[in-house]
């Protein structure tokens, strides 16, 4: 049976979110929480942003979810492609990309290594360095030498860029269309690849140039922006409500199975692939904590998604904490509490 959140749980989460906002870490934010088989609850604090006037964030506010794109788009699409026989976890990524006419040391990284961040590819990703190149992007990325021997954990965005390009190639359809089809079947009607229209219901992110407008409705991630907002590592926009729907769907599938195979894929993804630090392992895309009982992922803009399959619990954090700069340190207390709360049995 799912283990519901207590009134003390939600009170602490609301108070900590309120403190994060009061400290200027984010203009506002929303926490979605719940269990399988029950309607989600939502906690909201603050305003969407100064640009949005008095609009308060709620379950329908649209956030740039940044690296949550990895687990909301790329990860489930890989799971579906594996079930359909279109991908092989232990085959090199070059097998699922258009043919290349040169040596491709990075193209020898396997799908498993890329999705588990153990590929050894170069960690620094600057797609602007490839401007004006004659070769297609997948070949430019694959031609790069490895930076480390495969096997060690190192968080690398370019691996997910390659995975996104591979998904588009094997399906013969753009990644945003693949995402739209997936999200439609899951009932995530507000989740899209950007850019999206600037409205008070869309949370702005960072002001990169003093005096210039904030990034608002366009991806905060530069590399995703250079790819037109559509990439395997970032670029998706979603709402607390949609992310709650997604979390519920994954947890239900994990327990009961589903026709899309995402339950089996989540089971497989909870197997540790490499240690990150004491107490944390990398599964297939997800970070695993609490002895593998919790899977979670963060987005640089100030978003997080936590799943606890054994207890049927989930937590979603949506903020635009990058509004004032690097969000990671500013919302660390809220993320730490979320992990502690969802890990409880």
UniProtKB/TrEMBL annotation:
Keyword Manganese: no
A GO molecular function held by the record: hydrolase activity
SUPFAM superfamilies: beta-lactamase/transpeptidase-like
Residue ranges of every copy of the Beta-lactamase-related domain listed in the record: 14-339
Hydrolase is among the record's keywords: yes
Alphabetical UniProt keywords: Hydrolase
Domain of life: Bacteria
PANTHER family linked: BETA-LACTAMASE-RELATED, BETA-LACTAMASE-RELATED DOMAIN-CONTAINING PROTEIN
Record-given protein name: Beta-lactamase family protein
């Amino acid at each position: 049976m799912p283990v519901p959140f207590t009134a003390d749980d939600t009170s602490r989460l609301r108070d900590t979110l309120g403190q994060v906002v009061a400290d200027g870490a984010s203009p506002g934010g929303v926490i979605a929480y719940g269990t399988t088989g029950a309607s989600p609850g939502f906690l909201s604090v603050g305003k969407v942003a100064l640009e949005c006037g008095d609009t308060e964030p709620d379950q329908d506010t649209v956030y740039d979810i940044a690296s949550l794109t990895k687990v909301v788009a790329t990860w489930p699409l890989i799971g579906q492609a594996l079930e359909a026989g279109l991908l092989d976890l232990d085959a090199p990524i070059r097998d699922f990309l258009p043919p290349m006419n040169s040596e491709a040391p990075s193209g020898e990284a396997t799908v498993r290594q890329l999705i588990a961040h153990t590929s050894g590819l170069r960690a620094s990703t600057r797609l602007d360095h490839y401007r004006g190149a004659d070769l297609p992007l997948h070949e430019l990325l694959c031609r790069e030498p490895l930076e480390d021997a495969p096997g060690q954990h190192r968080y690398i965005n370019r691996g997910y860029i390659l995975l996104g390009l591979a998904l588009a190639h094997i399906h013969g359809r753009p990644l945003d269309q693949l995402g739209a089809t997936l999200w439609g079947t899951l009932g995530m009607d507000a989740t899209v690849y950007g850019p999206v229209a600037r409205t008070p219901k869309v949370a702005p992110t960072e002001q990169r140039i003093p005096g210039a407008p904030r990034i608002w409705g366009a991806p905060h991630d530069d590399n995703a922006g250079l790819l037109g907002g559509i990439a395997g590592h970032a670029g998706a926009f979603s709402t607390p409500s949609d992310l709650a729907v997604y979390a519920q769907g994954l947890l239900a599938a994990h327990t009961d199975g589903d026709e899309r195979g995402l339950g089996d894929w989540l089971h497989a993804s909870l197997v540790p692939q490499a240690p990150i630090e004491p107490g944390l392992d990398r599964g297939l895309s997800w970070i695993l904590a609490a002895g593998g009982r919790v899977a979670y992922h963060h987005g640089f803009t100030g978003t997080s998604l936590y799943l606890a399959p054994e207890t049927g619990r989930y937590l979603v954090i949506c903020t635009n904490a990058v509004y004032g700069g690097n969000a990671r340190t500013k919302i660390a207390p809220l993320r730490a509490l979320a992990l502690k709360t969802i890990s409880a049995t």
